[in-house]
Specification:
This protein has about 400 residues and is an alpha/beta fold. It has 3 domains: about 150 residues, 3-Layer(aba) Sandwich (Rossmann fold), CATH 3.40.50.720; about 130 residues, no CATH class; about 70 residues, Rna Polymerase Sigma Factor, Chain: A, CATH 1.10.1740. Helices cover about 45% and strands about 15% of the residues. It is built from 15 helices and 11 strands. It has a 7-stranded parallel β-sheet with strand order 4-3-2-1-5-6-7, sandwiched between helices. The protein has a 4-stranded mixed β-sheet with strand order 9-8-10-11, with helices on one face. β1, α1 and β2 form a beta-alpha-beta unit. α12 packs parallel to α14. The chain is globular. The termini are far apart. It binds NADPH dihydro-nicotinamide-adenine-dinucleotide phosphate. The site of NADPH dihydro-nicotinamide-adenine-dinucleotide phosphate (NDP) has 27 residues, from α1, α6 and α9. NADPH dihydro-nicotinamide-adenine-dinucleotide phosphate binds next to α1, α6 and α9.
Length: about 400
């Protein structure tokens, strides 16, 4: 078997790093064709030395020239390119069989869409693509004949727990509910009165998972679970009323499917993203991921509780946005990205994230955009609207 060509978009991030860790374990199966980064140029340089991709993509033209010089001096034949069009280019190359879409935020949408339209095997970590543009994205997957595999651990768990070949009909599959588990984040037991004073570092200190800073803050506010509810809606064609969230602090059960007959099928494992990444890379086969096996003899108790929507109202907001439909999820996503960046910069309090996203949902036009261009305009307008309030 020839190794499959892979493009890793967001190679310098947490998911990108874990992906390359799994890929490097299987040089007979996977061959790195292209890598992208945004700001971490030294890291991308090191990755190019290690994997010798055909292409590397950075954000800015100046960085492109600098990285190209360094790679030439090091004798690495990688061609460096820059900008969003270059991301689309590497996502659609003939030599690329699969694309790991692991850019954070709305910036990851167009390249993931390009991969879907080109009929690639799309390993989707960038949940914001589906939250923003779920309908357009699923249409692109169908039109392009792409294979869409969910990397997000919860959706990967549901994907594994649904019947093989699930075709988007919960009733036909005998499914009653999809159950997304949530760790509860670092503030699960913190009193509501103390939430206003938590710092970005507190929010990024996740009890079980090691992740990028944006998703770590989303996990702390439970907005991440809200984004995942919307993601599950699009991936599995599930209405909000059939998606439940349960807090499971140990993060051993990564999500479950509840069937009409009372059966519940779950996927379990140690909380390490290399498991869902390896599952997507090799699907429908299985490959070693480097993750330690779960040892039930030493595991201890698994516990569950309902999410506290009073302390973590972002989750309720996301459910409401999904039910409202139209551009509400896209506005929720854009406002959340602006608010989380402001919190990470120390400009607002943690509790302001909910307030600002709520304000944006109340202040913006939520009517559905018909085209990608209109949706991107709505995304930009939401960012400008909230940016003006923050300045
Ligand atoms: P990180 O912040 O660790 O990495 C983000 C990657 O995207 C980096 O390679 C970064 O480049 C690149 N990037 C950032 N901004 C831009 C931009 N404007 N244009 C192009 N590239 C950009 O994020 P994570 O790896 O944690 O998350 C990636 C995605 O996967 C997110 O959508 C997240 O929700 C999702 N996800 C993550 C999980 C996790 O465990 N981390 C779990 C499930 C889903 P650079 O570093 O060079 O600046």
């Amino acid at each position: 078997m020839n190794p499959q060509g892979i493009a890793v978009l967001g190679a310098t991030g947490s998911i990108g790093t874990n992906t390359l860790d799994v890929v490097a374990r299987h040089p007979d199966r996977y061959h790195v064709v292209a890598l992208s980064a945004h700001r971490q140029l030294d890291r991308l340089f090191d990755l190019c030395l290690r994997f010798a991709p055909r292409y590397a993509v950075v954000a800015a033209g100046a960085d492109e020239a600098a990285l190209q010089r360094r790679l030439r001096a090091a004798g690495v034949p990688t061609e460096v390119m820059s900008g969003p069009a270059a991301l689309d280019f590497i996502a659609t190359l003939d030599s690329v069989d699969m694309v790991m879409a692991a850019i954070v935020g709305a910036a990851g949408l167009t390249s993931a869409l390009a991969a879907a339209r080109a009929g690639k095997k799309v390993l989707l970590a960038n949940k914001e693509s589906l939250v923003m543009a779920g309908r357009l994205f699923m249409q692109a997957v169908a039109a392009g004949g792409a294979t869409l595999l969910p990397v997000d651990s919860e959706h990967n768990a549901i994907f594994q727990s649904l019947p093989a070949g699930y075709a988007g009909d919960l009733d036909a599959a005998g499914v009653s509910h999809l159950i997304l588990t949530a760790s509860g984040g670092p503030f699960r037991q913190l009193a509501a009165s103390r939430l206003a004073d938590v710092t970005p570092d507190d929010a990024c200190r996740h009890p079980n998972w090691s992740m990028g800073r944006k998703i770590s803050v989303d996990s702390a506010s439970l907005m991440n679970k809200g984004l995942e509810v919307i993601e599950a809606h699009w991936l599995f064609n599930a209405p909000a009323s059939r998606i439940q969230v349960v807090v499971h602090p140990q993060s051993v059960i990564h999500s479950m499917v509840q069937y009409r007959d009372g059966s519940v099928i779950a996927q379990l494992g140690n909380p390490d993203m290399r498991t869902p990444i390896a599952c997507c890379l090799a699907w429908p086969e299985r490959v070693a991921s480097g993750v330690a096996p779960l040892d039930f003899r030493t595991l201890g108790d698994l516990s569950f509780e309902a999410p506290d929507l009073d302390r973590f109202p972002c989750l309720g907001l996301a459910f409401s946005a999904l039910e409202a439909g139209g551009d509400a999820p896209a506005v929720l996503n854009a406002a959340n990205e602006v608010a989380v960046a402001a919190f990470l910069d120390g400009r607002i309090r943690f509790t302001d994230i909910y307030r600002l996203v709520s304000d944006a949902l109340a202040g913006m036009d939520l009517a559905a955009s018909d085209s990608l261009d209109d949706l991107l305009l709505k995304d930009a307008a939401t960012r400008a609207w909230l940016g003006a309030r923050l300045s």
